[in-house]
Amino acid sequence: MKKLLLSFLGAALFFSGSAFAQDNGNTTKAKEDYKWQMRLRGVGVIPHNRADIGIIGGQIDVNNNFIPELDFTYFFTKNIAAELILGTSRHTVGTLASDITAVGGGSSANLDLGSVYLLPPTLMFQYHYNVTDNFKPYAGVGVNYTIFYNEKSGIAKDISYDNKFGWGYQFGFDIDITDKFFINVDFKKLFLETDVTVDASNLAGGATLDIPAKVKIDPMLIGFGVGMRF
Known about the structure:
- This protein is about 10% helix and about 60% strand.
- The protein has 1 helix and 15 strands, in the order αβββββββββββββββ.
- The longest helix has 23 residues, at about 1-25.
- About 25% of the residues are buried.
């Protein structure tokens, strides 16, 4: 998966670089003539965790992270656009205040459930508004499909996450540096949830012990980056 993402990023940079080279000789092209934008952001990922954990109870704990994010935007009109957002993040996972007295543990134990990568490609439909010629705020709403991969199970024998559809919203703004290049500030809220199954048979002396949980991650993403039109 990592190699696939790196290959995609390399291809995106190659083609956007080719577009830049072709457009560079056209000094008369106006801003509104560019139909595509590409942004590269640094993004803080701050999950808002909630869970319904079967058998052992307690609450879920998913850590914050900071990641690179790549997006492509296509303008159907001057104001209406669609944006595809690509990024992946790794999170450590655990439970807080779980009751594991049935397997010889405490009644308020914190459990290490390893880590997992999230890949939630998101398609946003946006409205852009030109406040001034150089300052362009926007808002959007859209859908995502979250893929969970490279799971590590921590103290459990195994752990699995179900891939799920979700939705989200965003708002932000672009500030032009030139007709082609700009800086960007962006805020997104994604609503992500998954069904988790923890195989804890290793803690139960080999007896079957599957612990189900419905987990809502619902991260807030705060990003800052640069972009170009092509």
